[in-house]
Amino acid sequence: MTTSNATLPAARRVLLTAALGSALVAGTALPARALDIPPRPSEGAVQDQADLLSTQEEADLNRLIGQKNKDNEYIRAAVLTVDGTQGESIEDYSRKVATDWGVGDDGRNNGVLVVADMGERELRIEVADGAREVLSDGDAESIMKDELQPGFKDEKYAEAFTNTLTEVYDQANPQAAHEREVRSNTIMGVIFGLLGLGGVVAGLLAWRRSRRTKKIREQADREIEQFQREHPEENITEGMRRAYYRYRQQNPKAPGLNATPGKAKDKDGVEREIQYAPTFQSWLPLYVMYPAVYSGASHSSTSGGSNYGGGASSSFGGGGGFSGGGASGSF
Questions:
Q1: Which of 85, 116, 211, 283 is most buried, judged by most C-beta within 10 A?
Q2: 3-state DSSP helix/strand/coil percent for the chain, to nearest 5?
Q3: pTM for the full predicted model
């Protein structure tokens, strides 16, 4: 009896310790919050969630990528801008997005994803294993230092992406780079002769575009403020505001009676007609139902064809092989 009474508390302590250890292990084994991957572009290869590019600049980048994809089988590139990486490092975030989007061709793993995080002011050129055969980590680092970082430090975002993508594709196709240099040298004299006039014209166009964008945003802000006054219980996020800016820039006025509605794919890949919303209040329920369709992403029209030149080779072919190749930087 004495031995039994002495060992009972010890046994209880063992059981209690084991139960506590199991609870701690179970607690640490709880799954981490899933990463909210940005939606893959419904058309083109640029997802500008940080709203760095004008509609025209985004369209120009998509045309560039589409044309390079036609001319170059070694690289398939895409672009993503965000305001944060949800606590992930820029390297892990870029790798997960590129894998989820399927950047590159299936079986060739030739994808390249260029990412700009405006929240932490970080940059990344993520290169898949197959693409590293023609675009080494050293090449990616040089392009980062020579093109992407300087452009972002000067806040010339479209120029930075254009130069970066051009170098990425040309690195994989040296002949194209050589031909581009020869053409550039040939017409240099003509360019200098027209530089003065071209500068004036470019300046006027930039001023008009800037003025138009400012007016559209001011009107959008007024509509949002009015909606918030009338619906104080509604939480309008910064993401909603930026999405409405983009939508309104692409849809500044009602389409004509005979105009063919544009189309865009929702998050499930279903193509839907884009209805015209004259105000923020009429746009909001459409956005809540189909955020990918009404976020201002450039869309296609059944009569006008693609905003990106049509027939462009896609950068998304189910590629993978993103094991951490590429280069990172900051600005």
A1: 116
A2: 50, 15, 35
A3: 0.57
